Amino acid sequence: MAKIFKLWTILSLSIAAGGACSRSTEPETSSTVQPAGQNDDSGSPVMAIVDYLGSRFTDPAVLDRYARADLIVLESAYLWGVEVNCGAVAELKRRNPNLRVVGYAPAHTSGTGWGLPSAPDSIPNPYLRDWYQATRPFWTWTTLGDTMMTWPRKVLLQVTNPACRAAMIEIIARWNEAGVNRLDGVFWDFFNDPLWIAPWLDNVEGEPDLDGDGISYFEDPDEQQAYRQSQVLLVQELRARMGEGFLQIFNGGRGTSDSTFAALADGIMYERFPLVGFGGTEQVLRALDPARPNNLFTARHWPRTVNGGPWVLLNSVDRISWIDGAGGLVDYAIADINRPLAMLLDLAVDYHDGGVMGYGWPDVEIDVGRPTAPLRREGDSFWRDFERGRVTLTLTTGSYPLPYDFTIVQDGQIVQSLVWPAHMP
Asked: Please, which pLDDT band fits residue 151 given cuts at 50, 70 and 90?
């Protein structure tokens, strides 16, 4: 408790003067536009780490593991509100100067408990308490006067109100400028059109009412348009405050379906790919269908390129297992199945351990170098040549979880392949 209180006191006194940690240890990134194409420097595949759980970056081995990625998405509260992680971003970048570190940012919510201690003998995480206090005047209410939630313990904010967006942006800007950890950008979670409410919420009475006129959002076209526009304004207003070089990566369905909106982003994430955004059956076939407006061939070019992007991420925490033709048990991460597709299309991929949105890394590591030729296709087969190998993919079912067979060759050897129901190691 004493350490966290000390951190909070220092930040309260010195946030405008440079922050708790020496700014000389943090790279100046937020106001500088980075050249395009930087995410190709480490070869293929482009690797990301998405970790909402947080970690203590005091162990050099932990820092080494995270620094291997090209892009890291971390919970901002663990970078800005936990004293032991002070200076973690500088340490990560000392190990990998090309690494981009972005912090998780709620796009329209605040935690109902963020202003409270997490345990009887503790005080609130200072960053989360700041967010809670700054946005508390902008909680929304339902048409029946209840607190409007979008997720358990996550209250919907009046993001259509300019003062609410200004409060959110000010918290991000002040903490990033404080010196605790200088981030390269934020990961907005999430942007959707229309407003999405968790369908299993059963403790909220009434309908959402962002503008407080007594009419449900779902029956108010003006409110629906204001909500859509508020997302655009939030991105534009943060960019105006933080500069062109500050990354903004979008999670949520709007970034993966609306090309005009995605053009405001530096990157987009396909969460639980290919299940979200390409629903039904034959999800991967849909994702690769040129006739579909949001097909991957097209959507991968939607975001901006000025900051090393576009950072287009295929994400999944799932795993699949089956008995192969020899009677052996085969266990595969869906990320392993997504990886060859990411390599063919210049996308990024992330891995997770334990089926949760935390740190993960592939068991079979690959580095085939940079691509030497564009993607080629003949019928249901796709392939691409790289400096040190080739990736081949052949559509089969087109459906999750085993949409295609693939082979990855590196330095003349097959390093990973999948042929279902048989399986080659």
From this structure: very high
As beta bridge partners, residue 395 has 404
Alpha-carbon distance of 376 to 82, in angstroms, equals 48
- For 89-106, the DSSP string reads HHHHHHH-TT-EEEEEEE
C-alpha 340, offset from chain centre: 20
Between CA 14 and CA 18 the distance in angstroms is: 6
Looking at 163-306, which runs of residues are DSSP E strands? 185-189, 208-209, 247-251, 267-270
- Please check whether residue 261 is in contact with residue 253, taking contact to mean a CB–CB distance below 8 angstroms: no
Which CA distances in Å does 156 have to 111, 260, 282, 311?
9, 25, 34, 28
| Kind and range of the H or E run holding 2 | helix 2-14
Amino acid (1-letter code) at residue 184: D
Its pTM stands at 0.91
Amino acid identity for residue 204 in this structure: V
For 7-54, list the strands marked E by DSSP.
46-51
Q: Are 277 and 256 in contact (CB under 8 A)?
A: yes
Q: CB 277: neighbour CB atoms within 10 A?
A: 21
Pick the closest to residue 273 from 282, 261, 284 (CA basis).
284
Using left for φ > 0, alpha for ψ between -120 and 50, and beta otherwise, residue 410 falls in beta
Q: Is the C-alpha dihedral spanning 360, 364, 368, 371 positive or negative? A: negative
* pLDDT per residue as tens digits for the range 6-46: 444 434 433 433 334 434 344 444 444 444 444 545 578 99
Identity at 388, one-letter amino acid code: R
Interval 170-195: pLDDT, tens? 999 999 999 899 999 999 999 999 99
Closest C-alpha among 289, 29, 59 to residue 176: 29
DSSP 265-331: -SEEEETTTTTSSS-SS-HHHHHT-TTSTT-HHHHTTSS--TTS--EEEE----EEEEE-TTS-EEE
